[in-house]
From TrEMBL:
Name by which UniProt lists this protein: Metallo-betalactamase and RHOD family protein
Matches recorded under PANTHER family: PERSULFIDE DIOXYGENASE ETHE1, PERSULFIDE DIOXYGENASE ETHE1, MITOCHONDRIAL
SUPFAM superfamilies reported in the protein's UniProt record: Metallo-hydrolase/oxidoreductase, Rhodanese/Cell cycle control phosphatase
Domain Rhodanese intervals: 261-332, 366-447
InterPro entries per record: Metallo-B-lactamas, Mito_Persulfide_Diox, POD-like_MBL-fold, Rhodanese-like_dom, Rhodanese-like_dom_sf, RibonucZ/Hydroxyglut_hydro
Chain ranges passing through the membrane: none
An example Gene Ontology molecular-function term: metal ion binding
A single BP term in Gene Ontology: glutathione metabolic process
Source superkingdom: Bacteria
């Protein structure tokens, strides 16, 4: 018997490969899906079933691609806001055999209307569930977001409350296998730990401890979540089926001359924020490689051609992996060597960093042409903020930069300076010449005050 969790870094996506009796199933595969075939064949198993817990918003499903590779059938829930063209519909009470394992289907709407959970039973011990694939309904330490249907927000929050109780009825012994871990945009309160049981969550998960349905609904509808534009692309592709990932996940190498003449829609500098701020190519924006899964979907539009700038080939490879998984992968090439470019006389831009003392001085002086711009999310700002600052979430600068005056001075801040540099890079690329970043940002501000 095989059970393997496959984690996709960056997106914090968790998929699963299970098998017994020569058969195997995959739950929520990612787009670059050869890994499942390789692992199954190494164990002498043939993938016969592919299960989707829901239509994902944050990544391209690999289910239709994996089905073509293996001949397996894909199963998806009803009510998917459209026809899932590559899948058969499976419903509450259906049972699928994988050797001695049984996968029993639970309809668990709330996060999305089509959401399913899949309970695992061992036919040799059929009385209680061994575990349950909870998708985006139940995480370790949190539950799924319910903001995708704003006109029906109380209804879907109530559906999630009911679905969570349905999962809990499987028994405290059931191990939970969610579709995401900490760091995912699909939840904000997930524990770093990626293993738990229904019983542990029932006793300790703050949202599962809420006994009143109305109280639960009130909590969910008052949550703050952001939906990057690329979610709409994911929703479409996960109905019609996305294309296979490129076979080579490494951009074509580019010279400096090729980079300068390539006419890409975006030049993406994936180096660390301080490296970007110290010196970057004019017109480039900063999306540090580790931040691409969270922020690329805000600043890169469907179909845009991209040129990448990095410190190393490894950075280029990891960046392409991240972009492929969200289908923003029209990459014309990658360049390594910003310092040599500067040494060759290439024009460079930089963004200064300023200290807490300088921020305090400006706040006290209240210069009319200066704004301290806080780009953290709404929950962070609600917990702690600096009086006199203005708030625009970093992702929403993709459009709201148009409301700012390029002739004014702006200091960008977040929790540490990382997101602030992303925001500053976006403004810098759009003609803002009077920018700096508060190094340390809210962390430094709070430390100053003990």
């Amino acid at each position: 018997m095989l059970f393997e969790k496959i984690k996709t870094a960056g997106l914090s996506h968790l998929s699963y490969l299970i098998g017994a009796g020569g058969m195997a199933a995959v739950i929520d595969p990612r787009r670059d899906c050869e890994i499942y075939v390789e692992r199954a064949r190494n164990e002498g198993l043939r993938i016969t079933h592919i299960f989707e817990t829901h239509r994902n918003e944050d990544l391209v499903s690999g289910a239709p691609i994996l089905a073509k590779l293996t001949g397996a059938e894909v199963f998806h829930g009803p009510n998917a806001d459209g026809e899932v063209e590559y899948a058969k519909t499976t419903r509450d009470g259906d049972c699928h055999a994988i050797g001695q394992l049984e996968i029993r289907v639970l309809e668990t709407p709330g996060h999305t209307f089509d959401h399913l959970a899949y309970a695992i039973f061992d036919s040799e011990y059929p009385e209680t569930a061994v575990g349950v694939f909870t998708g985006d309904a139940l995480f370790v330490g949190d539950v799924g977001r319910t903001d995708f249907y704003p006109e029906r927000k109380r209804e879907v929050a109530g559906l999630l409350f009911d679905s969570l109780r349905k999962i809990c009825e499987l028994g405290d012994q059931a191990i939970i296998y969610p579709a995401h871990g900490a760091g995912s945009v699909c939840g904000s309160g997930m524990a770093d730990r990626e293993f738990s049981t229904v019983g542990h969550e029932r006793r300790n998960n703050p949202m599962l401890k809420i006994e009143s349905r109305d109280t639960f609904i009130d909590r969910k509808v008052n949550e703050n979540h952001y939906q990057p534009p690329y979610f709409r692309l994911m929703e479409h592709l996960n109905l019609v089926g996305g294309n296979a990932a490129p076979r080579v996940l490494m951009p074509q190498p580019m010279s400096l001359d090729e980079l300068s003449s390539c006419e890409a829609d975006r030049v993406i500098d994936v180096r660390e924020p301080l490296a970007y701020a110290a010196g970057h190519l004019p017109g480039s924006i900063n999306l540090p490689v580790d931040m691409i899964p969270a922020f690329a979907g805000w600043f890169i539009a469907e179909g845009e051609e991209l040129a990448l700038v990095a410190s190393s080939q490894d950075q280029l490879s990891t960046t392409m992996e991240h972009l492929v998984r969200i289908a923003l992968d029209k990459i014309v090439g990658g360049y390594v060597g910003v310092v040599p470019a500067a040494a060759s006389g290439k024009s460079m831009r930089s963004i200064p960093m300023i200290s807490t003392e300088e921020v305090e001085r400006r706040l006290q002086g209240k210069p009319g042409d200066w704004t301290l711009l806080d780009v953290r999310d709404a929950d962070e700002r609600k917990a702690h903020s600096i009086k006199g600052s203005r708030h625009i979430y970093v992702g929403e600068l993709n459009e709201m930069w148009k409301d700012l005056d390029p002739g004014q001075r702006y200091t960008l801040m977040c929790a540490s300076g990382m997101r602030a540099t992303v925001a500053a890079g976006w403004l810098d690329a759009h003609g803002f010449d009077h920018l700096d970043v508060y190094l340390g940002s809210m962390g430094a501000w709070e430390a100053r005050r003990g």
